[in-house]
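User: My instructor asked us to take a sequence, write out its structure as C-alpha cells, and then describe one feature of it. I'm not sure where to start. Here is the sequence I was given:
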Amino acid sequence: MSISFKRLIVGRPLSNDRLGEQMLPKRIALPVFASDPLSSVAYATQEILLVLTLGGLACLHLVPWVAAAVVVLLAVVVLSYRQVVQAYPSGGGSYEVASRNLGPWAGLVVASALLVDYVMTVAVSVAAGVDNIISAVPALDSYRVVVNLGFVVLLTAMNLRGVRESGRLFAVPTYLFVVGVVAMIVIGLLQTAFGHAPVAESAGWQVRAEPGHVGLTGPALMLLALRAFSSGCTALTGVEAISNGVPAFKPPKARNAATTMAVMGGLSVIMFAGITVLAMIGHVHYVDDACQLVGFPGNCATGTQRTVIAQIAAAVFGGTHSVMFFYIQAATALILILAANTAFNGFPLLAAILAEHRYLPRQLHTRGDRLAFSNGIIILAVVAGALIYAFNGSVTRLIQLYILGVFTSFTLSQAGMVRHWNRELAGVSDPGLRRRMHRSRVINAVGACLTALVLAVVLVTKFSHGAYLVVIAMPVLYAMMRGIRRHYDRVARELRPQRGGIVLPSRIHAVVLVSQLHQPTLRTLGYAIAARPDTLTALTVKISDEEVNALRAEWEEREIPVPLTVMASPYRDITGSVLEYIGRLHREHPQDLTAVYIPEYVVGHWWEQLLHNQSALRLKARLLFQRGVMVISVPWQLDSSDRVAAQPPYPASPGAGARVG
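Assistant: Let's start with the prediction itself. The C-alpha cells for your sequence are:
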C-alpha cells in the first residue's frame, strides 16, 4: 500500500540511462530556473512602497530613484552571472567560483548563504502567492497558513516527479504571467498616453506616517531610502539559480544557459520598471497595517489591503470583477507559488555538490526513483514549511530575512570572477581574447563593488528587522559543514588500507546465541558449522532454572554436536551477560576474531516486528562497538514475510531488456 501511494505521488522509477532525457531546452529551463526572479517583480515594487510610506506620502517621490537603482543593479548582476555561466559550466555557480578562486572558506560562506536563501525563496514566494489569492478571495485570510503549507506539499510532490516533468507543469503559468503583466503595462501606458490614466483604489486614501518617521530629512530620509532600496532588491533573488543549474540544460549547455539568463534579465527589468511606473501613475498607496490608511473601507483591524499588482490590474482593466483582473491575480499567484521551484531545483543541486565534496551527508548526492535529488527536496520543504508556520505566512515578516544571503553570494562570486580573469589573462597572448577577458573582468569588478555596497546596506537596514536570524543561521551552517567535512576526512584516514593487503585472523571463535531450540537456532548452528571456525560454542543465558534444564535436556536428546555454554544472569540481563562472555573471550585471545551468530525472525507486518527481535536488536547495537567481533544475522522467514517477497521489483524502463540480433 505504501509503495503504491509512493508511485501515485512520485511516479514510476526511471533508470540511470534515462538521465539524458531530463535535460531541459531553453523554453522549459526559463520557467524552471528563472521563475523566481521573474515573479519577484510582483512584490518588489510593493516592498519599496511599503517602506517609503513609513515616512508618509511625501516620501513617495523617491520611488523612481530607488527603482532605477534596482534596475541598474539587476542589469549588472545578470551581466556578471553570464560570465560565471560561460567560465564555469559545471553547475557549481557562486559556490564553485568562490571555492576555486578565493579558497574553500569562501566557498562554504557562499554555500551557507545560498542554502539559507533557497529556503527563504520557498517561504517568501509561496506566502506572496497566497497573498495574491487572498486579494482575490478575502475569505481565505483565516486559512492563510494552511493554504501556504498545502502549496509547499504540492510543490514537493511535483518536484519529486523529476525536473523535466515538473518543468512542463511550471512553463504554462510562467508564460501566462509574463504575457499578462506585459499586456497590463502596455495597456496602462496607452491609457495614460490618451489621457485616461489608471487610478488605483488606494489613490484617494491618506497615510498616517509612523511616529518618528514624520517630516524626515537629511540622514534619516537617506536611511529610509536605503532601506526601501534593500527591500526592492528582492527583484534580484534567484538570478544565480541558472548558473547553479547549467548541467540541467541541453547542449550546448553554457550557451543555452547564458541565453536563458539574458532573456530572464530583460523580462525582469521590463516588468519591474513597468509595474513601478504604473504604481506611480495610479498613485498606489500601500502599507503593512490597513489602520494607517485614512479612508480605508470596512474594518481595518480585520480587513486586508489588496496587493500593489492587484490594485494596478483593477485600475487598468476596469475593476475587481473584470475577467482580466482575475487572470492577472491567478497568473501572479501561480507564478509566485511556482517560483519556489527555482529553489526546489537550486537547493538539491547545490546540496548534491556539497555532499560530493563531503561538506553535507552523502545521502544528499543520491538521486531518487525519478532521477531527482529527493532527499534535498524533502529537507527544503520541511524547513521552509516550518518557517511559514513560525511566521504565520506573513510576507512582510519573512521578507526581512530575505536577500542577505543573496548578496553575500553575489559579492564573493563576483570577487572570485575578478581573480579568475586575472589568472586567465596571465596565460593568454591573443589580443582579441584579451580584450574580451578585460571586458568580462570589468563587468565582474563593477558587480562585486555594487553587490558589496548593497550587502552593507541590507545588513544595516534589515538587521534589527529580522535579518539577525540569517546572520546567526549562516555561521551555524558554515560550522556544521566544516564539522561534517572533518568527520568524513577522519573516517577516510581511519579506513585507509594498510600495507600488506588482506590480513587473515589467527583463529576464529564462533558463538551462536541460543534462546530456545527451534528451527532458526538449528539453521544458525548449521551455518556456523559450515563456516568451519576454529572453535564453536552455543551460548545461552540462564533466566530461570526450569528453562535452562529443559533446553539442556532437548539439546542432549537431539544430540546437537555443539557444546552448550550457560551464562548465569541473576539480574536477568541477557545483553550484559553475552557482552561479558564475548569480552572475556576476546581478552583471552586478543589476536583472534570472534564471530557472533544471531538467529532472527523475518516478518511481513510492521506490528510483528514489535513482537520479535527486540533482544537481537539490542545485542547487535552493543556488539557492533566491540573490537575484534563480527556480528552475523541468520534470517528465518515467517509465513507473513511471503507478502513482501511477492511484491514485484521496480518496473523496467520502456524499451529496456535484452535484444537479439
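For the description part of your assignment, you could build on this observation: The first strand starts at residue 206 and ends at 207. Try explaining in your own words what that tells you about the chain.
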